[in-house]
Sequence to fold (350 residues):
Amino acid sequence: MSETTRILLAMCQWDYNDRGRGTSFEYETFYQGLRDCPGIEVRFCNTATQGSARIKARRVAELKQRIESFQPHIVWSMFSSLKPVDRELFMRLKSRQDPVTVNWFADDSWRYDDFTVEARRLFNYAVTTDRPAYERCLADGHRSVIKSQWAASCLREPGEGARYAYDVSFCGQPHTDRRQMVEHLRRRGIDVAVFGYGWRRSYVARKWNSIRKNLRLPLPAFSMGRVGRDNMHRIMAGSKINLHFAKNSAGSFAIHARTFEVPGAGGFLLSEYAPGLEEYFEIGREIEVFRDADEMIDKVRFYLAHDRQRRAIARSGHKRVVREHTYAHRVRAILDTIHLHTRGTKGAAS
Fold:
């Protein structure tokens, strides 16, 4: 048998540490995306930073116990805030370098100065998806920084004769100018179904969308609340056009996970343009983009009317994701960078 690399994911298990909102993005992407990855054995430990000092101390104790029992080569975290007890543990782990510690900094496009600059020093390696943050790290003399990117955790082959439940959909929260962009489409007579925490949800909306889907009537979609990731992937595959808005909470434009999730799920992606998209997809052949509200409307209308072109782009985008943009690809590239690969450096199982 080939040797394996043991990775302990030290991340928040529940969405925004709220069990009522379901499992977290990091649990559903990193953990579920790596569970069946050849050459990697992965375990998960809930390390949410929220809660009382007593609860946090208990979680840190559990993490220490998991490190002792599992003997990972890598402790992989995704902290967006740190308590003193976290800082103490990870400073100690960093000095030992056994296991190697890696933190994925998710919000560097808008939180680099108020979090990453200090927190990166607590880990053996810092991973960022933001090129300006990566370049600033190097300029600051922090050489243990790795440039990576978001990816897809679910792969669904685009259906040739797929029946669609929605003409246009959007999955995500209604921050920045997203409400205005959706309303801009609706005022032009374009039906948009929206899903995500913060959008209106009601019994009537659920029933209406159920009737609309089952009868396939040309009725407008109501806004729905948060959906689980399995349902989200079904929505992506069942939408003629999947919108993505690239502006983050700070108002700057960045590449997000949804950029890869939509084509990974077999959907057609129409994304707001963000710098660097050309590194990952061929625009116009694998995904489509818009730069303002008017261009968004023009392209929505064009691709609703041109089924063959839309399906061809969805197929090409899906193939690109399968070939280059899964979390297995990302993790293996990071392992290569830190010279561990899938063999590890201590007691790898055989």
